[in-house]
Amino acid sequence: MDTTQKTGFWTKVRAALDDFSGDLGFGILFGYVLGGLMYIACFVIAFRMKPDEWWLNVLWTFFGGIVGWTAGVLLSPVTASQKETFAGYGKAFSAFVSGFVIGKFDVLMKAFGGTLDMHEIVSIGRVLLFGTTFFLGFQFTFIARWKETDKRQTTAPVARLESPPAATSETRTTSS
Fold first, then answer.
1. What is the pLDDT of residue 85?
2. In the predicted model, is pLDDT for residue 148 greater than 60?
3. Does the global pTM surpass 0.70?
4. Is residue 57 a contact partner of residue 126, using CB atoms and an 8 Å limit?
5. CA-CA distance, 83 to 77, in Å (whole number)?
């Protein structure tokens, strides 16, 4: 970085983030920062949500992040052996998530069709906390593993094609 020129605060911040992020790039790192802030916001909401069972809201937030992180790992295999192993895990996981969403679908539909009591509002809030942290956890792992896979594919050694040995005069005379 050229220190003789005057640079603004944001230019210095961006340069520091570029140095820190390495292969990820500024956009992906910026997404991680925004995702981290969103995760913090989810925890604040979980603590402040009514009723006073804040601990259950926090557990839903943790659970969403962990399940999302697991999904991100399972859906972004880095090696061929992981691709084979994760295929079965992915099917079981998608069945679980589908069942969960279908199980909570009626509560979400009530929100659009009529009045809700406090219990239903809390249930919707918990589902949204779970869903938000699920997708944040998924994106955090999926993007990092996707970039790792991309890096491995671009730096993989290329096999050289050897040219066949040139025929010499000795090999020509022995074959005739």
1. 78
2. yes
3. no
4. yes
5. 5
